[in-house]
Amino acid sequence: MARLNLVLLLSVAAASVAATGSVPTEAKNPDVIEPPPVLPPFDTELPCNVTLPDGTVEELFEGDIILTEEQRVNRKGNIFQTWPNGNIPFVINASSSYDRPVILAAIAEWEAATCITFEEKPESYSSGPHLRFFQGSGCYSYVGMVSSNSGQEVSIGSGCAFLGTVIHEIGHAIGFWHEQSRTDRDSYVTVIWDNIKSGYEPNFYIASASQSLGVPYDLSSVMHYGGFQFTNNSFPTLVTNDIAQAGLIGNRDGLSHRDKHLANLMYLCDDSCSSPPTCANGGYVDSSCTCACPPGTSGATCQTVTGTYYEAPCGDQSIATAGTITSPDYPSIYPPGQHCVWIVTAPAGMQVRIDFGAFGILYRSGGKCPFDWVTVHTDSDSIPDYVNCGMELQNQSITSSGERLALEFHSYGYGNYPYYQKGFTASVTFV
């Protein structure tokens, strides 16, 4: 019933937004900076097949991976080849000259965190395996080293030249698969199969073998899908089992601690250490022969626990009294890069009612809320009943189906559009 109500609620708003994602007429204002023209990486429509510079047509696996023949037969697993001595020659094709700064910045992130080294070669290079960065149709890479003197493509296509996205594609090239394909993923996330585009279900299959080397599952990995990958209806295809951790998946800000840990293990970065320390609590020995400690720990061997690996989200996950919920910094424009969760529990035998007043979230595009959004969970499970943006929930009321209701707010990374990003205010009562 909640989703039916959502369709009715959106009917007026959707009519004013063209399929191309144009701004509703009533939102036009001469004093407003136009909205960002590029969708966030991995929220765009991804091609199923791509044409490489030599004319070869390849199927994309999981949205951004080209498989070798051996990998295609096995359909994933731990079939890959690391780069000898952790040295990776690379070429930046002329088509990617404009993206050169972000490519070099992403390479620097991997070099700073590991013993892997990258060596730039001229575009004519053909003397051994190497990466060839070019601007293709989308963001994609092979997994691990491909034994070919002609090199292996890493496409940084239109809309892909974001630091975290390039770090992600280089991650594939050095040997990383997607995090959510690990064999233990169901303990941390749930796939909502009904929300996946028909034919794209294999992108969410679990690997036949896991290449985790004992590193724990990481919701914040730069290699993890976001929640709306391949959605057919603007609702999530992937949710965290703990709703308070929903904002962790889809990180494209940079390498997580466990990303660095896995790369250091894959490339034996501590091999030169004569007397390596024993690191505790998820720490690891890096190439400097000292312990690299995860968030929530400190000390030479990470022996002191000071917090948790994942930061708690903003918001309040234990609301038990009537009151008001607002977006961060309301009534000022909300900041970028936020994910807040509020969980409200009513007295026994009562329900939670939330009444939105003002509601201004960066607009719907192509039927989705790809930039910023608010979700409402009427039974506080991980699967939302409402996914909204624009002005869609202004002056609307929602009542929980039981004693609990959860509300999520997400701002992607744009913070310069005050006409659209006014935020929201909502009152909470019990009925």
What is the topology?
Elements (H helix, E strand, L loop, with lengths): L1 H14 L33 E3 L5 E5 L3 E2 L2 H6 L12 E6 L7 H14 L3 E4 L10 E4 L4 E4 L9 E5 L6 H12 L14 E3 L46 E3 L16 H10 L17 E2 L5 E2 L4 E2 L5 E2 L8 E6 L3 E4 L11 E8 L6 E9 L11 E6 L8 E3 L8 E3 L4 E8 L11 E8 L1
Parallel strand pairs: 3-7, 4-5, 4-6, 6-8, 15-17
Antiparallel strand pairs: 1-2, 2-3, 7-8, 9-10, 11-12, 13-14, 16-23, 17-22, 18-21, 18-23, 19-20, 19-22
Helix pairs in contact: 3-4
Concise structural overview:
13% of the residues lie in helices and 24% in strands. It is of the alpha+beta class and 431 residues long. The longest helix is centred in the first third of the chain and has 14 residues, at 2-15.
Describe this entry's structure for a reader.
By secondary structure, the protein is α+β, with helices and mostly antiparallel strands. Helices cover 13% and strands 24% of the residues. The protein is built from five helices and 23 strands. The strands form six sheets. An eight-stranded mixed sheet has the order 1-2-3-7-8-6-4-5, covered by helices on one side. A five-stranded mixed sheet has the order 15-17-22-19-20. Strands 16-23-18-21 form a four-stranded antiparallel sheet, with no helix packed on it. Strand 2 (57-61) and strand 3 (65-66) form a beta hairpin. The longest helix is centred in the N-terminal third of the chain and has 14 residues, at 2-15. The chain starts with a helix and ends with a strand. Mean pLDDT is 86; it is low at 1-31.
